[in-house]
Amino acid sequence: MWNKDKIQAFRQTLLSWYDQNKRDLPWRKDHDPYHVMVSEIMLQQTQVNTVIPYYQRFMAQFPTVQDLADAPEDQVLKAWEGLGYYSRARNLQKAANQIAYDHAGVWPETASELTKLAGIGPYTAGAISSIAFNQVEPAIDGNAFRVFARLFCIEEDIAQPQTRKVFDDVIRQVIDPKRPGDFNQAIMDLGSSYMSAKDPDPEHSPVADFDESFKTGRVLEFPVKTKKKPPVVVPYYALVVQSPAGYLFIQRPKTGMLANLWMFPLVEASDVEAAGQAFEQLSGQTLIFTDPQKPLVKHTFTHRQWQMTLLVAECQPFDVTQLNGQWVPRTKINDLAIPTVQKKLLKEALA
């Protein structure tokens, strides 16, 4: 670990650079904890440039934590549509409910209290507590792992849960106690620029003099991270059932992947005939599905990849309430809360 003088020099160098070069992001216009929470939840698994317009639309629709708490869930999911990882949106609304009603609108200020909110883990709690409430708390995300692994040549594998404590111990000694929020955001900006995962520019980094990996020519060796296992392939038939009333959409279960979102019916079957039989068992309707010879639609989640074959059938409308379904005219499809994977299916089905 550095001595006190070097730590002080690092803080000064980093924050001077940040003051001159920080990114102009809409959620940095103030230190409102609601703005910090929404932006940080959106930024999980999603690039900054993608998040900006979503954040702006979300804030226009749900300007306060009370507005979000009171909104119908389908409106929240629709506003989130395209960002993916929809459990984030549901947990965000649950957290808003906790703040608005369990806490009477008063925000918890410490990281330990914030982690009691739905969907708020150590990183997001650290970000909110430091940025909104000036708590001296690290915000350890992928950027922080990478920056500090390179600064100190930390050899521990960041894929291992216990490694977080190693980084937490290091960062707590280095974080600026007077400006912890700015310090954490400076690390974020550093990690997305000079110390990025791909094509870093350590030579011109404002903290090059403190970067041990740069001095020893080992920048790309850090952070140490074991590779993930490839996603498990899950084959489906996606059933494009069309009647004069519209296309058949099924609302997914209230729990699990893509909960409450609307999709074409998906069935697991060995062939087209078996897919038709599976649908008949679900609906009581016999349909003749045709294979339109459209390309396989693939969509990868964190640990699995859906590979979907489109099957098409035309029929007269029938009661789909037992399927938790509805007939949707083509002009009304965009009104539904649908996941990105369904958008891929629509693109091929309507081509």
Explain this structure to me?
The longest helix is centred in the N-terminal third of the chain and has 18 residues, at 4-21. This protein starts with a helix and ends with a helix. Strands 1, 2, 3, 4, 5, 6 and 7 form a 7-stranded mixed sheet that branches. It is of the alpha+beta class and 351 residues long. Helix 1 crosses helix 11 (180-191), helix 2 packs antiparallel against helix 8 (122-133) and helix 8 (122-133) packs across helix 11 (180-191). The model has no long low-confidence stretch (mean pLDDT 95). The chain has 2 domains: 4-221, Hypothetical protein, domain 2 (Endonuclease III, domain 1); 232-349, Nucleoside Triphosphate Pyrophosphohydrolase (Alpha-Beta Complex), CATH 3.90.79. The chain contains 14 helices and 7 strands.
Features:
2 domains, alpha+beta, 43% helix, 351 residues, elongated, 14 helices, Nucleoside Triphosphate Pyrophosphohydrolase, Endonuclease III, domain 1
